[in-house]
Amino acid sequence: MFADHNLPFSVAMLLLALLAIVQLIGVGDFGTDGGLDGDIDSDTVEGLGGTGFADSLATIIGLGRVPFTIWLGALLFLFAGLGFSIQMLAEGLLGAPLYSLLAAAFAGVAALPATGVIVRPLGRLLPQDETTAVSTDTLVGRRATISIGRAAHLSPARGQVMDRHGRPHQVMIEPHDSAQVLTQGEEVLLVRRDGETFYAVPLAERQLAPTV
Asked: In angstroms, rounded to a whole number, what is the distance separating the alpha carbons of residues 194 and 210?
């Protein structure tokens, strides 16, 4: 277990033990009020290379489905278990274990999706913390009011939109139709988002405007 070719997996088991100890004594109680177990929203995953790709990756590996410490513990356990198994299999088939970094690469690639398989159903069983935090993307499809300025093509104005919890958000708005102008006090419907700018159409043009 502590041979050189098993070093990455021995370290993983040591880290898992340390994680369990700090959780037991309360040092590792990372909460949603600023700790590592906070929600991962679309603004965070955009920094990983785009919302769609990052959302898919997070879904595959189970990141965000359970508190981070639980996810990390599962990953370390699977990484170590798969690593030891790979080395035992290599010794049986090849007569010698793999180089430690090569075995660690194989174990890491296998452990990430395996962690997702385990934590996804576990996340449905754990009690969820209630939060009023919302993703910026959830504001698309909601009513907003042009509060400051006059919105035109390439000249956004500031608007206010209420999220599903009734909390106001200040956003920059441009008309969806580049030929239109949205005036101060006008009520609009946010139809899409590009970066920090929302694009909107006047509610008067929508026969089935949302009531939210």
From this structure: 21
